[in-house]
Amino acid sequence: MTGAMYAAIGGLKSHMTKLNVIGNNVANVNTHGYKAQRMTFKESMYTTSRSGSDGGVTMGGNNPSQMGYGCSVGSIDLNMSPSTFAPTGVGLDCMLDGEGFFMVGDKLEQETTVDDATGKITASTWTGGITSGNDLGKMDLTRVGDFWVDPDGYICNRDNKVLYGFARVQNPNYPNKDNPDEPETIISTHLVPLRVPLSAAAPTATNGGIKDDGTHNWEEGDPVYPFLSAETGGLNQYGCPDIYTNKFAADGTATPKAGESLYPVAKNTAPKAVSDVIPLQLRNMKVNTDGAVVGTAPSGDTVVIGYVAIATADSPDGVSHVDGPYYKCDGGAGNLRVSAMVNLPTSKYLGNKVPAANGDAPPAVDAIMEEKVTKVRSGGLEASSTDVANEFAEMITTQRGYQANTRIVTVTDSMLEELVNMKR
User: Fold this and answer.
1) N or C, fewer C-beta in 10 Å, the chain?
2) Interhelix angle for 3-27 vs 388-420, to 10°?
3) How far apart are CA 286 and CA 303, in angstroms?
4) In angstroms, rounded to a whole number, what is the distance separating the alpha carbons of residues 134 and 117?
5) Helix, strand, coil percentages in the chain from 3-state DSSP, rounded to 5
């Protein structure tokens, strides 16, 4: 075959690849969170029949003579620019109005023990979570915020992956006798799956919920938050070992240990129980502009579960598609950093790290950035970024390009036929 035939075949393959990209974009015109792709061509290899020359004293120079062999695929790029807002009316549906990704993954491994007599949790520990920026790469990234609350109280998407963020927990130093004004709860910077707080058990004289004068230390259904324990590896440990074991005095006052909860959790004995504890049933749940996941408790109080974490890659267009709406921060995307849309008062580093006694700061990769550009819009999802008009225009030019390359094939075939027919 002649070189023209090879060049045309290369053009046919490249145009077919571009048509595949266009077809995928058009197919996902109504896919929430879809990011349109773009394919570019590049010239293929060249052969040189005569090299160029700069000339000499008596003779002039000449340009090189080269002939190409068609084209090939240059790149297939993602356009990660934010798309438009598509209202759904679902409270926990949300969209990132700006750059960044939601972080989703598996639940932490959890082991909880409840005392049968009192209904109090005697031990509850979690392993896993993110305490270092070096571990962020193992998280799945997505732009689709179709979240809901599963039966065990976790904030999940529709693929059963849990949403990671900065959870509201009980203050590990509460109650602080030296500072009684210290808040009972804080926002932990340990990156964990967000889960609604547990539901408090009914107060009784046995569990210390009823004082001698008949008043209650708590009410049934009050929120009970997990907490950080300094007794199990420092503030980087997200867990609840040996909790709910406080003793109430005769006058109904509590003397809990540091990091100990005041309230026992209602035990779940239902036949279809997912776990042996009961999550608090919240109403009107939504995600605020600052990323706060909130809901209304049966008592009417507003409960803040935690704050959504936002992941940002050095090169957002360089993330790799892995499956469906999920991306990974692999080669080409650079480093992955995490940010919050509010200033977290407890710590500015993952895992609640604080500067050392000598003033040395934790590693920069663990720093949590304060996001001031990207915001959350609730009650809807991000629409597909496919521009149908542009895709149809690209389809027309791709079709004509493919058609032109087929003409080269047929013309080359006709010329070869004439050559073969020279001898009758």
Assistant:
1) C
2) 160
3) 11
4) 44
5) 15, 35, 50
Torsion angle defined by CA atoms of residues 115, 120, 123 and 129, in that order, rounded to the nearest 10 degrees: 140
Cβ–Cβ < 8 Å for 341, 293: no
Spacing of C-alpha 309 from chain mean position: 8
| Span between the terminal Cα atoms of the chain, in Å | 21
- Greater confidence, 62 or 135? 135
Matching residue, tokens 């907490």: 227
Omega before 175 cis (within 30°)? yes
Cα–Cα–Cα angle for 244, 248, 253, nearest 5°? 115
Which among 294, 296, 284 has a CA at the least distance from the CA of 376?
A: 294
Distance between CA atoms of residues 86 and 30, nearest Å:
10
| Higher-pLDDT residue of 32, 122 | 32
Cα(20)–Cα(8) distance, rounded to whole angstroms? 18
DSSP secondary structure code for residue 330 in this structure? -
Quick check: helix, strand or coil at residue 366? helix
For the residues 362-366, what does the mean pLDDT come to?
A: 89
Mean of per-residue pLDDT scores for the chain: 82
Reference 125, options 221, 218, 192; nearest CA is: 192
- Each residue of 184-215: pLDDT tens digit? 788 888 888 898 988 888 887 777 777 777 78
At 280-324, the pLDDT tens digits run 899 999 999 999 999 999 888 899 999 999 999 988 888 998 888
Site of tokens 């600052």 = 290
Residue 202 exposure: Cα atoms within 13 Å on the Cβ side: 2
Phi, psi of 366 (to 5 degrees): -90, -5
Give, for 337, the enclosing helix (H) or strand (E): strand 336-340
Residue from 395, 393, 411 nearest 15 by CA: 395
Alpha-helix residue ranges (DSSP H) falling in 208-344:
none
Residue 1, token pair as written in the block:
């075959």
pTM for the whole thing? Answer: 0.82
DSSP string, 117-175: TT--EEEEEEE--B-SGGGGGGSEEES-EEEEE-TTSBEEETTSPEEEEEEEEE-TT-S
Most distant CA atoms of the chain, gap in Å? 120
Answer for the pair 321, 332: CB distance below 8 angstroms, yes or no: no
Distance separating alpha carbons of residues 349 and 218, to the nearest angstrom = 34
Per the CB < 8 A criterion, the answer to whether 348 and 336 are in contact is no
